[in-house]
Specification:
There is one protein chain. This protein is α/β, with parallel strands linked by helices and about 325 residues long. It contains 12 helices and 12 strands. It has 2 domains: about 90 residues, no CATH class; about 220 residues, no CATH class. A 9-stranded mixed sheet has the order 5-12-11-10-9-8-1-6-7, with helices on both faces. It has a 3-stranded mixed sheet with strand order 3-2-4, with no helix packed on it. The model has no long low-confidence stretch (mean pLDDT about 95).
Length: about 325
């Protein structure tokens, strides 16, 4: 997915693990061995130490911190860090991966336009797996495609996702969000320096456009408040998400379910269906999500009452390589 630097670093980490180096020592620990997404965690731990200024030798080789992109030099610095500061490495590896990719806002925004054109109502938007809630501000972003654009030309965040075919529909539909709220088991605060560094650390260090975009979205979030509650999704939906007359109640999420156990996913889907069944014609409900569908990430929109579930687009996990489905 376009990170040659991380490809080389992860190959070096794998060789280190096979030769009983510090990576092998770290991942042999019981509290580390059972964690999911080991590659993402390892690279994020390394990246954080460059971003926070505590490892200048590592920062000298990571493009996100102005470095030269030399993989050999970066790995030598990272390996030394893991070997000499294992306690810090353990703490960083145990963090919950935060993949608040701002580019995923584009297919979600397109889903809101579909809803606006269909229902002609303002929206109350609720997001699970919100992380820092950056994409709760998706109506404040600028979206640009081939011969089309939407949003404030002066927006800090401009999305021009790579598109393979089609385009979003209903670009002239009004978009009114009267409420925006999210939840996460461990939400991050865009006003907190350490939380922002944590967010940035999970972006691949040679994808400087993503780093720049994330920094811009953090600044925009500071200027446009939105609440993100500390809660598990099932409990939060039961307590907070209720269809109300005169608006569309929208539950949305992106690349969230793959981080959940099979049992947790089943409980979540049951809870969402129960919420949808409380909808009425005058108090509709919509389920908007971008999740892996087996061969690609699918952006889908289900509307209630009725339960019509429509595919809007497919893409990769960063909402690039979009293929739009315009069948309505």
């Amino acid at each position: 997915m376009g990170s040659p630097l991380y490809a080389e670093l992860l190959r070096a980490a794998a060789r280190d693990a096979e030769s009983d180096g510090p990576v092998a020592t770290l991942f042999a620990l019981p509290e580390i061995a059972s964690l999911s997404l080991p590659g993402i965690r390892l690279m994020a731990a390394m990246h954080y130490c460059a971003l926070d200024g505590t490892s200048p030798s590592l920062a000298a080789h990571l493009p996100s911190t102005g470095g030269d992109g030399n993989a050999e030099g970066a790995w030598a610095a990272a390996r030394e860090l893991f070997e000499k500061e294992p306690a810090r490495a353990i703490a960083l590896l145990r963090r919950t991966p935060q993949t608040n990719e701002v580019a995923r806002a584009l297919p979600l925004w397109a889903g809101l336009l579909e809803l606006s054109a269909l229902m002609h109502l303002p929206m109350r938007v609720f997001e699970i797996g919100s992380s820092a809630g950056l994409n709760l501000r998706l109506d404040r972003f600028r979206y640009v495609g081939l011969r089309w654009a939407w949003g404030d030309p002066a927006s800090r965040v401009v999305l021009n996702n790579r598109t393979l075919s089609g385009r979003p529909r209903h670009l002239d539909a009004p978009l009114s969000l009267t409420e925006r709220r999210g939840c996460d088991v461990r939400p991050l605060d865009p006003h907190d320096r350490d939380d922002c560094l944590e967010l940035l650390s999970f972006v691949w260090a040679d994808q400087t456009d993503r780093v720049t975009r994330l920094r811009a979205a953090i600044e925009l979030a500071r200027e446009n408040p939105a609440d993100v509650d500390s809660a598990d999704a099932v409990t939060w939906i039961r307590d907070r998400v209720h269809p109300l007359g005169g608006s569309v109640c929208v539950l949305m999420h992106s690349v969230t379910m793959e981080h959940m156990s099979k049992e947790a996913r089943a409980a979540l889907e049951t809870t969402i269906v129960a919420c949808a069944q409380r909808s009425k014609r005058t108090a509709p409900f919509a389920w908007l999500r971008m999740e892996y569908g087996g061969t690609a990430y699918e952006t889908r929109l289900a509307t209630y009452p009725g339960g019509r579930d429509e595919m809007l687009a497919t893409s990769d996990g960063h909402a690039q390589g979009l293929r739009w489905f315009n069948r309505r």
